[in-house]
Write a structure and sequence with these properties.
The complex is a heterodimer of chains A (about 675) and B (about 140). Chain A is built from 15 helices and 15 strands. Chain A is α/β, with parallel strands linked by helices. In chain A, the strands form 3 sheets. In chain A, strands 1, 2, 4, 5, 6, 7 and 8 form a 7-stranded antiparallel sheet that branches. Chain A has a 6-stranded mixed sheet with strand order 9-12-13-3-14-15, with helices on one face. In chain A, strands 10-11 form a two-stranded antiparallel ribbon. In chain A, strand 10 and strand 11 form a beta hairpin. By secondary structure, chain B is mainly α. Classes of the chains: A alpha/beta (about 675), B mainly alpha (about 140). Chains A and B meet through helix 8 and helix 11 of A and helix 1, helix 4, helix 5, helix 6 and helix 8 of B.
């Protein structure tokens, strides 16, 4: 892949559209020269290529360089708020002609700023795109993923091997050198695939470690729960079987008892039993009635007996009452209070005085203590009415007594009859093996109750066994999950081990490749250095250590890498870069700014003579000043030069003019 | 209120001799009299005393029950008293009534012993009484 054309538009000193073309057709001439005075665009040219590919600049002395990459002239001619475009396009050819066209564009707006006339503001991201010649060679097609294309074909990491500033070459020995050399060798070895594989394997190994569940602490506990379930199930099953067996025995017993009871006419026995119960209940009722009658009888007898024995007294009293009522012999109606006053005054009702304890006084005292006439009449009348009633009731009571006696007697007869019936029933029951049947019936009831209890127990056990089995299944599922996790872990451990094996294997392959390439680069660097540096025979050994540090030793085995002169360092750098370039799998042109800036004629002669040979078939672009392009240099290079371009500062326009050929 | 009730309202208790109290209580708790009241037991004792013509004075009184608990049977008691005293004072004055009840108490005091003897054969006691009544 050779750089055939560079189009630079409004990039720093390159105002307007500038086209630099290289002749890539001359196969035996691989050197291209861009000649310019200092500060006339050589480094800008190098930076334009770098910016186009990677969107940033690389080759200014300090990183703090002016970041204003738009052409000053373009800014000045653009009105405030006006937009302007800067653009760099690189055209690469293969054997058939133009193959790739890579372009980066940036749009800026001129901004008002009192302190600076050149203030610009970037408008959006850079437009970065590429075109590729189609397979038939009839037209360009858009490269879909331009960043991926650049990363695959011209990766930024290897840019330092094809875009070089000769004056800065020595710097690679002085800072982070070991890392850069290792990185450089890795890059040119083109073993990204292995490195990527190792990284992927390391990530995969980490993932396996992350995915591992670890030892499950519940494992033992779950197993114990299952064992407990099994133990309980054994117990339940044993009890279940025993109960079932017992129940079967009881059922057989029931069948035998039923047979017995059926064969012994149980129905009749039941009837006898019912009759017996009925008679006994009737007897209870009769007993209660007898008791009630007896209580009534007792009361009536006592009442009648009292009346009968008082009959004479009552009759005498009645007779007296009759006399009183008939004769009207009631006491006089006097006020007892008045009589008491008379007694107090010792006076009679008639007004005469009365003596103490005389008959008159006694009569008065009796009179004072007597009920009033009205009350006395009422008592006599009441008695005269009540007492005959009481006497008359005696006959009724005696009649009632007779009735009650009869009733009691009848009840007692009934009881006797019932008693006889009961005796008969008992005799019949005895004759019917009733005791045996009763015993069997009771036994049957007991057995039935036992069967009922057993069936309840069996039901309970079935539920318990079912529940325990369910619980056990759940535990077994848990255990299976734990085991599966454990198996997965084991698998992950195996995978992890396999990963580590592969990592080690890949690393060993990588190290082997690296070592082989390192050895070749070491050998090539040594050879190149001898060809480029006129005094190279003074340096006994050029080597790259296992730790990837560059070493140049004299014949006394003294390390000189940090003591090389400017010229020797440039030659060594070029030798190393050329070696790297030649072992690189990347087919890109080499552009070297100031390749022979600080070296003497002898070395220039060697470089001019040998570098093109060392980079045979590789497109090389030297950016040189006129002082570097000496007659010796020119003489040795002349028949290897394909294109010569001069960059000339135009004082009138302030622009860089591009001219083919040397000025 | 009946006139007789008012008449006897201020006469409190019927009595028995303290010595007979224990017998009286035993009889009261017997099967036959358990279901009956004090008036029935007292009047039966009175009737038995009267039948056998035995009165026994009360030396130390022991209250049995209030006279008004006799209810209609108060006429029997007053009749017995009247027949014994043969004086209408029994119905004329409270003092007379008291005298009548005292006669009753003395008959009962004697009759309770007779009843106690009869009750030694409780099974035939009532039967004997019935026979006596039906022989009338």
């Amino acid at each position: 892949m050779k750089l055939s054309k560079v189009i630079i538009e409004n990039y720093r000193g390159f105002y307007g559209k500038n086209i630099i073309e290289f002749d890539v057709e001359k196969k035996d001439k691989n050197i291209n020269l861009i000649i310019a005075r200092n500060d006339t665009g050589k480094t800008t040219f190098l930076n334009a290529i770098y910016w186009c590919l990677y969107g940033e600049e690389q080759f200014y002395i300090t990183k703090k360089s002016n970041k204003r990459i738009m052409s000053n002239k373009k800014i000045i001619e653009t009105s405030i708020d006006g937009k302007m475009k800067l653009m760099v396009t690189l055209v690469f050819n293969d054997q058939k002609g133009p193959k790739y066209e890579i372009t980066r564009e940036r749009i800026l707006k001129r901004a008002r700023d009192e302190e600076s006339d050149l203030k610009t503001i970037q408008q959006g991201d850079d437009l970065f795109y590429g075109m590729e010649m189609n397979a038939t060679g009839t037209g360009f097609e858009n490269i879909e993923h331009i960043n991926d294309f650049i990363a695959s074909n011209i990766p930024k990491a290897i840019s330092s091997f094809f875009l070089l500033d000769g004056e800065q070459l020595k710097a690679i020995f002085t800072s982070d050198i070991q890392y850069k050399i290792k990185e450089a060798i890795e890059r040119v070895a083109n073993i990204d695939a292995i490195t990527g594989t190792i990284s992927n394997l390391i990530e995969l190994d980490k993932k396996y470690s992350r995915d591992k569940s670890g030892i499950d602490a519940n494992f033992g506990a779950i197993q114990k729960r299952i064992d407990d379930c099994d133990m309980k199930l054994d117990e339940h099953n044993k009890t279940f079987k025993e109960t079932m067996k017992e129940n079967e025995g009881l059922k057989r017993q029931i069948i035998e008892l039923v047979d017995f009871l059926q064969n012994h006419n149980e129905a009749i026995i039941r009837e006898y039993g019912a009759s017996e119960r009925r008679i006994r209940e009737e007897n209870e009722t009769i007993d209660a009635r007898i008791k009630s009658n007896e209580a009534d009888l007792n009361r009536l007898v006592v009442e009648s007996y009292i009346l009968k024995n008082s009959e004479g007294s009552i009759k005498a009293t009645l007779k007296k009452f009759n006399e009183i009522i008939t004769s009207g012999n009631f006491p006089p109606a006097v006020d007892s209070a008045h009589v008491l006053q008379l007694l107090k005054r010792k006076e009679c009702i008639c007004g005469s005085k009365i003596k103490k304890d005389s008959e008159e006084e006694k009569k008065l005292k009796k009179l004072a203590n007597t009920q009033s006439y009205k009350e006395y009449v009422r008592i006599i009348s009441e008695g005269d009415s009540r007492l005959p009633e009481m006497l008359n009731s005696l006959d009724d009571k005696i009649k009632l007594i007779a009735d009650l006696r009869k009733k009691i007697s009848e009840s007692e007869l009934k009881l006797q009859k019932n008693s006889k019936d009961l005796e008969e029933i008992n005799q019949k029951l005895k004759d019917s093996d009733a005791d045996d049947i009763k015993e069997k019936a009771e036994e049957k009831e007991m057995v039935e109750r036992a069967i009922y209890r057993n069936e309840k127990e069996i039901g309970r056990l079935e539920i318990n066994i079912h529940d325990l089995n369910e619980v056990k299944k759940e535990y077994e599922r848990d255990l299976t999950n734990v085991k599966i996790r454990d198996m997965k872990d084991q698998l992950l451990i195996k995978k992890s081990e396999k990963c580590k094996e592969l990592i080690n294997y890949s690393k060993s392959i990588k190290e082997a490749i690296m070592k082989k390439i390192k050895d070749k680069i070491e050998e090539s660097t040594a050879r190149n250095f001898k060809e480029l540096h006129w005094k190279a025979e003074n340096y006994e050994k050029v080597s790259i250590s296992d730790e990837f540090s560059l070493s140049v030793k004299d014949k006394y085995k003294g390390e000189l890498i940090n003591e090389l002169s400017q010229g020797a360092a440039l030659c060594f750098g070029l030798a190393f870069m050329t070696a790297l370039r030649n072992y690189s799998g990347y087919d890109v042109p080499i552009i070297i700014d100031s390749p022979v800036g600080k070296i003497d004629e002898g070395n220039r002669e060697n470089i001019a003579n040998n570098l093109p040979k060392q980079l045979k078939d590789k497109q090389v672009i030297f950016l040189v000043t006129s002082s570097e392009y000496t007659s010796v240099f020119k003489e040795f290079l002349e028949n290897k030069i394909s294109t010569t371009i001069s960059l000339i500062y135009n004082k009138k326009t302030g622009e860089i003019d591009i001219k083919n050929g040397s000025n | 209120m009946a006139a007789i009730d008012e008449f006897i309202s201020k006469i409190n208790y019927l009595n028995i001799d303290k010595k007979k109290r224990e017998i009286y209580n035993k009889l009261k708790n017997s099967v036959i009299f358990k279901e009956m009241g004090n008036p029935e037991l007292f009047l039966l004792s009175l009737a038995l005393g009267l039948k056998h013509g035995k009165r026994q004075k009360i030396v130390n009184s022991s209250n049995l029950f209030r006279i008004n608990e006799l209810r209609n049977n108060v006429w029997i008691a007053l009749s017995v008293g009247f027949a014994e005293l043969n004086d209408v004072i029994v119905f004329e004055t409270k003092e007379g009534a008291r005298m009548a009840f005292k006669v009753c108490e003395e008959y009962a005091n004697s009759g309770v012993d007779i009843l106690n003897d009869l009750m030694k054969k409780p099974s035939i006691f009532i039967t004997d009484l019935i026979e006596e009544l039906l022989d009338k």
